[in-house]
Amino acid sequence: MPELPEVEVTRLGIKPHIEGRSVSGVSILDGRLRWPVPKSLPKRLLGQRLSTIERRGKYLLLKMDTGHLLIHLGMTGVLRVLPTADGVKPHDRVMIHFGEISLRLHDPRKFGAVLWHPFSKGAIDNHPLLKKLGPEPLAAEFAGDLGAERLFRFSRKRTVAVKSFLLAGQAVVGVGNIYCSESLFEAGIHPRLPAGKLTKAQCERLAKSVRDVLTKAIKAGGSSLRDFVDAHGEPGYFMMQTKVYDRANEPCRICKSPIVQIVQAQRSTYFCPICQRR
DNA sequence: AGCTCAACCTGGCTGC
DNA sequence: TGCAGCCAGGTTGAGC
What we know:
Layout: H1 4-18, E1 25-28, H2 41-45, E2 52-56, E3 59-63, E4 67-72, E5 78-83, E6 92-98, E7 101-106, E8 113-118, H3 128-131, H4 144-155, H5 162-167, H6 177-187, H7 200-219, E9 260-264, E10 267-271
Antiparallel strand pairs: 1-6, 2-3, 3-4, 4-8, 5-7, 6-7, 9-10
Helix pairs in contact: 1-7, 4-7, 6-7
The chain binds a DNA duplex through loops.
């Protein structure tokens, strides 16, 4: 999927087309996603105006008149705005129509989610899926020393490898498998280092590298691994050049030694055994 | 509490 | 060409 940069790029891509518009219909083509898409959604959303689209971690939050629509892209989800008249394609799962255009969730693997959270159930931040998320890596709450302090504090006494620790999203959200390897490389930290052994200096480097890597990826338009395309349906993004991810046995861009691939918590990790031991 | 691992589901690639 | 086997961006929840 889509990691945080791809979700942010998607948000920026769809926002100008549908913000401020009202829902003219909803089609659930296949509601068997990560959780079932509520059957009542079409009735509930009809006529509601979409005021803003925000993002929390990898969740998109579409604010409507009476609540929020939560959308997660899972591993293979793609959100695009297309003419309503355009034909349905295989793996299109949900369409939200705004007159002549519609927002479409295309998701082959069906790990995505479309959920409804009415204002009456409390603030969106308290939604069970959002409640335990760590801070936003690009917000003030993770800026400068705050990010480093957060990483340091949350990693104390943790024996889990720093790679898994970062991926878990409790110390900071939005760092998926690709950018996790990339951030650790930039910070010069070995992915197998137990999180609890991170020094203050390493936390400072890591907080900065997380911010830098994600910011660069957003600027590059998100990376396009396999099936990510932008909101307009154009396969426009080229993958941001990675330093280590998916480069097993290729020479490190810094020291030329071969990049190593290992498996941690059932996920591939890539690193440079020479550069990542500070 | 924290860690590991299976599971959700489908498509694409590799190798026989 | 066909097919089996393996791999893939995320996240929850069971079990220890």
